[in-house]
Amino acid sequence: xxxxxxxxxxxxxxxxxxxxxxxxxxxxxxxxxxxxxxxxxxxxxxxxxxxxxxxxxxxxxxxxxxxxxxxxxxxxxxxxxxxxxxxxxxxxxxxxxxxxxxxxxxxxxxxxxxxxxxxxxxxxxxxxxxxxxxxxxxxxxxxxxxxxxxxxxxxxxxxxxxxxxxxxxxxxxxxxxxxxxxxxxxxxxxxxxxx
Amino acid sequence: xxxxxxxxxxxxxxxxxxxxxxxxxxxxxxxxxxxxxxxxxxxxxxxxxxxxxxxxxxxxxxxxxxxxxxxxxxxxxxxxxxxxxxxxxxxxxxxxxxxxxxxxxxxxxxxxxxxxxxxxxxxxxxxxxxxxxxxxxxxxxxxxxxxxxxxxxxxxxxxxxxxxxxxxxxxxxxxxxxxxxxxxxxxxxxxxxxxxxxxxxxxxxxxxxxxxxxxxxxxxxxxxxxxxxxxxxxxxxxxxxxxxxxxxxxxxxxxxxxxxxxxxxxxxxxxxxxxxxxxxxxxxxxxxxxxxxxxxxxxxxxxxxxxxxxxxxxxxxxxxxxxxxxxxxxxxxxxxxxxxxxxxxxxxxxxxxxxxxxxxxxxxxxxxxxxxxxxxxxxxxxxxxxxxxxxxxxxxxxxxxxxxxxxxxxxxxxxxxxxxxxxxxxxxxxxxxxxxxxxxxxxxxxxxxxxxxxxxxxxxxxxxxxxxxxxxxxxxxxxxxxxxxxxxxxxx
Lengths: 195, 492
Hints:
The structure holds 2 protein chains of 2 kinds.
Chain A: E1 12-15, E2 19-28, E3 31-39, H1 41-52, E4 57-59, E5 69-71, E6 78-85, E7 90-97, H2 98-101, E8 109-114, H3 119-133, H4 143-153, E9 156-158, E10 160-162, E11 167-172, H5 174-186
Antiparallel strand pairs in A: 1-2, 2-3, 2-10, 3-7, 4-5, 6-7, 8-11, 9-11
Chain B: E1 3-7, E2 10-19, E3 27-36, H1 37-46, E4 51-53, E5 62-67, E6 72-74, E7 77-81, H2 87-94, E8 102-105, E9 110-112, E10 115-133, H3 137-141, E11 147-163, E12 167-169, E13 193-196, E14 199-204, E15 213-218, H4 228-231, H5 233-238, E16 242-245, E17 250-253, H6 261-266, H7 277-292, H8 309-312, E18 318-319, E19 321-325, E20 330-338, E21 343-352, E22 363-373, H9 374-377, E23 382-384, E24 391-392, H10 393-403, H11 410-415, H12 421-477
Antiparallel strand pairs in B: 1-7, 1-8, 2-3, 3-5, 4-5, 6-7, 8-9, 9-12, 10-11, 13-14, 14-15, 15-17, 16-17, 18-24, 19-20, 19-23, 20-21, 21-22
Helix pairs in contact in B: 1-2
């Protein structure tokens, strides 16, 4: 089975210290959730430093008549992954929201999901989140139903994405998801597996 | 008349050996002349009373003297009158000198005095020289004896002798006047100024107190490339006694009262034969006739007529010309003119009595605005007042009445329908007010006419805005209204 690949496409330049190139971004409202940039080490680190301080920066697309994409983030919300690309001497930086990496199931919170070409993976991940969240048993046969009903109820929402990447917001509301499962069972839309 | 030219080197201030103040080391300076020793002797011999020595501590090459102002000088030479009896004294001095700078003016030319001269007669002299060859530097270190060589050479012997005769010479380089200077007499047979070929040849006095001479200059001050005198530089320069004055930027001729023939050719002067007397008489008659004509015909300078047009709209225009007809007793104040129709427009005053005769009472009878075509005015009796300056019609009529000793009350001016200047300003103001009011009224009328149209436009605009906003709002709200995703592909 192929590894799911997160799409990358050039969307524009970010100029803070020198210039670096953005290959993907996702915004939840005004909060930056995902950023994929490459460029000289100083440039990409400057982008991270600026966002980490709560300042805003922007991706400037090269096409004319295209509006720039303003990136904002609350302080300390982003985690940095940086790696040198061997051979061409540039650095690849990923900034990812903490909620995506370490979801909190104890209270009402949110997390995010990558929707890749392998949608089953995403569905399974959502199922895992819900299994961890609710106090009742959740079976893999119910996952498609949960996705469907989650979208209808507004618990799953797509983010504003650039560069081919697709991210969804998952509202981790224990009561809402529990109610959803109970209703499905009550209305016979899902069944308990035969033991 | 014999004249002696004695050269001096320089005129200047020379230090003496006397202190400037008692006890001071600074030496006193005196103005005087620097002369050679021989010339000093000559001056001492000829004019002992007029020459004073400047005391110097050492006398090496030159003598420094003060010479009385009465001694005439010209260009580094003292000019002294001399008699035949004094000549042997001078000769005795010059015979000890080689090429003394002393010259005698005798019979329209300069002569050099008897003096020492050198000559060669072909006799050779032999002399030997000894040449030591030091070789190269490395050869010096060796203890080799020097190469010594003796050469014998020959040279022609130069001898000296006393030349006993006077010889014609170039002298100081200037000529002396033939007779006593007649500075103020103008040359005969030539006009004092001849212009031609872009050059002017004129008889003019020189700088400060110099005697007048012939000057040749450019007609106008032009650059060197365009200068006619510079173009003929060689021809002008070839004339003897010609010099260039840097101060005046002109050539001058010191050779006499007759201008040089070459210069006359350059300016294209040809001595014309005298005019026959009957022709001169004829010309005189014509000139006299011209002078007799008393009337000044009208120069109709129509171009300036259009200046009055602005004021013209307000009833009391600027009058730029006054015409007067002596026989018909009218006066026309020209206020405007048409070049195309060849006519004048103005205020015509009919008078009783002649204005030109002093003291005679006359009266303004009537006035009216008239058009007069220019051919109507083309008679000898119509005359333009050359002294009339541009003014308003009111002022012009008042001034004319004052001239005629006929004080016009304002009622008369009102009767003549000439508004006063203040009244004109008031009229102009009123008219401008009327114009503004009319413009405002027109605007208001237009606004009233266009009101339904504007209202309709505003309505259309509002409707369009509403439609756009509605569309935007509904498009945003449409997102949650999606259909339920299929169960087999819930992410689609």
